[in-house]
């Protein structure tokens, strides 16, 4: 989680190599996927799928619902396309007669169900869901979230779920990583992060939750440019607890199960 522009989506897209990183490693089951050739990358893209934020622009308007879901099955040469499409549509709650409809005939929630069916088609182990409900009406958001939770239980899926809505995160996540200006500043179980946040940025984000019995911490100033981030701690230009050291030295990550990158914690 983190504010818009902090790098959540870029990180998600980089994990699946839709963006190429400029440095570093992407380890999946201990193997760096940056070393994968085309054949191995095709296998990896079957293991790891993505659900995108905007269901309106992520479907080919020339393909019917059935063709859209079947496309992934054909690319990865998976079983009988017709019966698999029907099964997947049932799983995501789309009536069978929708198979011959085009995207412009569907609502946002229905289009996102197609996005989920497409991701499920290749039987992935991990799904990166990039703000999958933020473009939908509030009334539809809960339906899609509950669908994702049900599918996770049924298929034993792991999600990396990118979001900025704190209620959504609390509802769906087991563990939370908080990002600020391209860096993960705190990580822990959802219960720990929401009940005992350590990083001043996390504290400020969570203090905005309505009904919380804590003082609202208003962050001052603009988010700096990620192209030219501040020296030292990237959050120091807005941090209410900043010290001299914060302007010079980037804080190391400390902790084991609950990690934080902040000079207040050794
Ligand atoms: Fe604030 Fe300093 Fe901690 Fe950064 S390192 S969050 S500036 S106290």
Automatic annotation (TrEMBL):
What are the GO BP annotations of this UniProt entry?
A: peptide transport; transmembrane transport
Classification via SUPFAM superfamilies: P-loop containing nucleoside triphosphate hydrolases (SSF52540)
Q: Which CDD domains does the UniProt entry name for this protein? A: ABC_NikE_OppD_transporters
In the UniProt record, the signal sequence range is: none
Gene Ontology MF: a single term: ATP binding
ABC transporter domain ranges (all copies):
1-206
| PANTHER family, sorted | D,D-DIPEPTIDE TRANSPORT ATP-BINDING PROTEIN DDPF-RELATED (PTHR43776:SF7), TRANSPORT ATP-BINDING PROTEIN (PTHR43776)
Family, according to the entry, reads as follows: Belongs to the ABC transporter superfamily.
Q: What is this protein called?
A: Oligopeptide transport ATP-binding protein AppF
Instruction: Identify the species of origin.
Output: Candidatus Methanoperedens nitratireducens
């Amino acid at each position: 989680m983190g504010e818009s522009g902090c790098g959540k989506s870029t990180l998600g897209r980089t994990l699946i190599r839709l963006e190429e990183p400029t440095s570093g490693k992407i380890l999946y089951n201990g193997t760096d996927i940056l070393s994968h050739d085309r054949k191995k990358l095709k296998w990896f893209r079957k293991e790891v799928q993505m659900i995108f934020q905007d269901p309106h622009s992520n479907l080919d308007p020339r393909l019917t619902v059935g063709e859209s879901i079947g496309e992934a099955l054909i690319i990865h040469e998976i079983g009988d396309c017709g019966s698999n499409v029907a099964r997947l549509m049932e799983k995501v709650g789309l009536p069978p007669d929708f198979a011959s409809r085009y995207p412009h005939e569907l609502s946002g929630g229905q289009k996102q169900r197609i996005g989920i069916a497409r991701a499920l088609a290749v039987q992935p182990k991990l799904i990166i869901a990039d703000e999958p409900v933020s473009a939908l009406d509030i009334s539809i958001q809960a339906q899609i979230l509950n669908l994702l939770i049900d599918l996770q239980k049924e298929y034993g899926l792991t999600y990396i779920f990118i979001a900025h809505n704190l209620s959504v995160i609390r509802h769906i996540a087991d563990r939370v990583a908080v990002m600020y200006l391209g860096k993960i500043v705190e990580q822990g179980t959802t219960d720990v992060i929401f009940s005992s946040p350590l990083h001043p940025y996390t504290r400020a984000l969570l203090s905005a939750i309505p009904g919380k019995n804590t003082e609202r911490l208003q962050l001052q100033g603009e988010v700096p440019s990620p192209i030219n981030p501040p020296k030292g701690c990237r959050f120091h230009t807005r941090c209410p607890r900043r010290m001299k050291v914060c302007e010079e030295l980037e804080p190391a990550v400390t902790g084991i199960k609950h990690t934080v990158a902040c000079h207040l914690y050794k």
